Amino acid sequence: MSEIASAPEMAMIYVDYNIISAAARVPADDVSAALRGELLRLVQSRGHYVVLSAWHAFELAKSNRNDHVASCCDLVEALRPLWVSNNRFVLMRWGRPR
């Protein structure tokens, strides 16, 4: 949490596992490449934090496609996310999206 406290001006965006999965699609297509690019731009040039939950790891573990798992892991590492214990924390802390 200290990283969050030290940069209050930076927006935090919770990214659902389905978005990570779509952006890491194998083989990549135009939509997945654009989505992946936008996620990376949010972090790299706009200074946003991506927030993921432990649930992402659980969802990824259910995959039986090693190439997709590797692609998802590469994307998550590139995003350098903040982690919360579960997505309920996001709902309790910031409320449901409108």
Mean pLDDT: 83
Sketch the major β-sheet.
Answer: 3 strands, parallel
The N- to C-terminal Cα distance equals: 25 Å
- Contiguous runs where pLDDT drops below 50 for at least 5 residues: 1-7
Strand content: 5-15%
How many β-strand stretches?
3
Count of helix runs: 6
Q: How many domains, as an integer?
A: 1
Which tags fit this structure?
single chain, 98 residues, mainly alpha, three-stranded parallel β-sheet, 6 helices, 3 strands, globular, disordered N terminus
Question: Any chance you could write out the topology, listing elements then pairs?
Answer:
Elements lengths: L1 H4 L6 E3 L2 H7 L6 H15 L4 E5 H8 L4 H14 L2 E3 L2 H8 L4
Parallel strand pairs: 1-2, 2-3
Helix pairs in contact: 2-3
Describe this structure in words.
The chain is mostly helical. It has one domain. It is built from 6 helices and 3 strands. It has helices at 2-5, 17-23, 30-44, 54-61, 66-79, 87-94; strands at 12-14, 49-53, 82-84. The protein has a 3-stranded parallel β-sheet. Helix 2 (17-23) packs across helix 3. The protein is globular. Mean pLDDT is 83; it is low at 1-7.
Task: Describe, in short, the structure shown.
With 98 residues, the protein is mostly helical. The chain has 6 helices and 3 strands. The N terminus is likely disordered.
